Amino acid sequence: MKKTNLSDYDPTAVPDGSLYTVAVVAAEWNPEVTGAMLNGAVSTLREHGVKEENIIVRHVPGTFELTTAADLLLGSDPSLNAVICIGCVIQGETRHFEFICQAVSQGLSNVAIKHSRPVIFSVLTCDTMQQALDRAGGRHGNKGVEGAVTALKMCKFKDQCE
């Protein structure tokens, strides 16, 4: 049987988030998708102990701006443990999709390396709006939930390296 909800996870394998401060930055473009992912990320962080006052939510105009936002947040707040970047890019008729997806994936990776803190890539790169909706709380789960789980696991990983 093919697994349909790709966001299923073992909650007992997720570290306690009570000592972490996590920012969630969501692109305003495709808000029905990014809003659902943002809600999934925030609720998952709360479920795993991150205090309300330690969840910082910010919005940027589009997915391309996630890199700058993550860099600014990490550069201005040394107490920030991780940034979850939420966006959605849907293939259109031009090559714009390719340029945005490549720039954001490389940019977020560079920000994580620069600051030595987790920067989570919760960016959907889909062919259709339906594919995006299916991954933003639809039949394939919620990539925002997955981003929150990944952030907490990476925060714990970083703690173990120090």
Walk me through this protein's architecture:
By secondary structure, this protein is an alpha/beta fold. The chain has a single domain, classed as Lumazine/riboflavin synthase (Rossmann fold), CATH 3.40.50. 45% of the residues lie in helices and 21% in strands. It is built from five helices and six strands. The strands form two sheets. It has a four-stranded parallel beta sheet, with helices on both faces. A two-stranded antiparallel sheet has the order 5-6. Helix 1 links the parallel strand 1 and strand 2. Helix 2 packs parallel to helix 3. The protein is globular, with a radius of gyration of 15 Å.
Please summarize the sheet with the most strands.
4 strands, parallel
* Domains, number: 1
Query: Number of helical segments?
Result: 5
Judged by helices, strands and strand pairing, the structural class is alpha/beta
Strand order of the biggest β-sheet: 2-1-3-4
